[in-house]
């Protein structure tokens, strides 16, 4: 019985030591640890990016498609990402946002896209965003994210 009491006391002591090594922010203090250098990560392979000419051509096609359906709008900004390209659309005054949203399938057909996403309106802006998948998806490596 005395041996089990000693074992219990030792366990409680080691638990209190572990609790004491945790800082007030809730992080475990380990002064011996150093973050490994980024040079350990491989350089990302060069990839063929989506061409700007192709993206601009789709932007013009998007404007034409909207005009064909009676929506007066123009592409004001294009943001190319690794998987999708966002076209920022500025509509003329008096154009209902719901009119653009209802053209979802027609826009996808005109752009020959599998699917598109319409962000109406873009938060914090007076514009509509139309996201179109890129023909080729670019991989983003961990080294690129951390650099």
From TrEMBL:
Question: Which keywords fit this entry according to its UniProt record?
Answer: Cell cycle, Cell division
- Ranges for the region named Disordered are 1-26
Task: Give yes or no: UniProt keyword Ion transport.
Answer: no
UniProt cross-references to Pfam families, sorted A to Z = FtsK_alpha
Top-level lineage group:
Bacteria
Give the signal peptide, or none: none
Instruction: Please give the InterPro entries that the UniProt record associates with this protein.
Output: FtsK/SpoIIIE/SftA, FtsK_alpha
The FtsK alpha domain sits at 35-134
Question: Gene3D superfamilies under this entry?
Answer: 3.30.980.40
Q: Which biological process terms from the Gene Ontology are attached to this UniProt entry? A: cell division
| Name of the protein | Cell division protein FtsK
Biological source species:
Staphylococcus gallinarum
